[in-house]
Design a protein that fits this description.
Layout (H helix, E strand, L loop, with lengths): L7 E2 L5 E2 L8 E8 L7 E6 L5 E6 L11 E3 L10 E7 L7 H17 L1 H10 L18 H11 L7 H8 L3 H14 L7 H6 L5
Antiparallel strand pairs: 1-2, 3-4, 3-6, 4-5, 5-7
């Protein structure tokens, strides 16, 4: 039997119930309540950028956008999170979470450069006339070609190298595209699916 849309194979043949089950940490988007009584916290997972709702532990105190939280696992607990309540679609998130998601994703990309810089170093043609760089806002065919030439065979070591070579804000362009996809999961091709949410080699 094939896994359903919410069930994905796990190492050892077991299935995981939700795509965020293998996530270890997340960043806060917004908190409902003061934190003294727990409350619901909207977060974005660091690995796959899944947006989720969690129940905070009573007494966790106020949580600020961008705060990093450890997610509970089958074998362990989290100091701040009592349980994961489920996924959270962008359109169903509170206005406060929607307002900060771009900044939180941008900071996350900057904090985890190896994972996200891989897009710039590995991106290739999606068709004979369309390069993956053209998925980024404002990047047309000639700019994409310039970026490929600037990348060369060795690639870039930092986002700053990309910016200097291509005269762009590489982390911000990637952030803008990924947040667009979080807002509209029907966007294709999807960098979330083809770059961010792929298993580590």
């Amino acid at each position: 039997m094939q896994p359903g849309p919410d069930r994905q194979p796990r190492a050892g043949g077991r299935e995981r119930e939700h795509p965020w089950d293998s996530e270890e940490s997340c960043r806060v988007l917004s908190q409902q309540g003061s934190g003294e009584g727990g409350g619901v916290v909207y977060c974005i997972c660091e690995g796959g950028l899944y947006t989720i709702r969690v129940r905070a532990r009573a007494g966790c105190g106020p949580l600020m956008p961008g705060d990093r939280l450890t997610l509970p696992t089958e074998d362990g607990e989290s100091e701040e999170i009592a349980t994961i309540l489920g996924g959270a679609r962008y359109r169903d998130m509170p206005a406060g979470a929607q307002a900060v998601i771009t900044d939180v994703v941008h900071d996350l990309i900057r904090d985890l450069p190896d994972k996200f810089l891989a897009f710039y170093n590995r991106a290739g043609n999606l068709s004979r006339k369309f390069h993956a760089f053209q998925l980024l806002p404002g990047i047309g065919p000639s700019k994409a070609l310039q970026m490929v030439e600037g990348r060369g065979r060795l690639g870039w070591d930092t986002f700053e190298d990309v910016d200097e070579s291509c005269n762009i804000d590489s982390a911000q362009l990637l952030t803008d595209r990924l947040v667009e996809e979080l807002k509209d999961p029907q966007m294709t091709p999807s960098l979330l699916d083809h770059v961010v949410r792929i298993p580590d080699a």
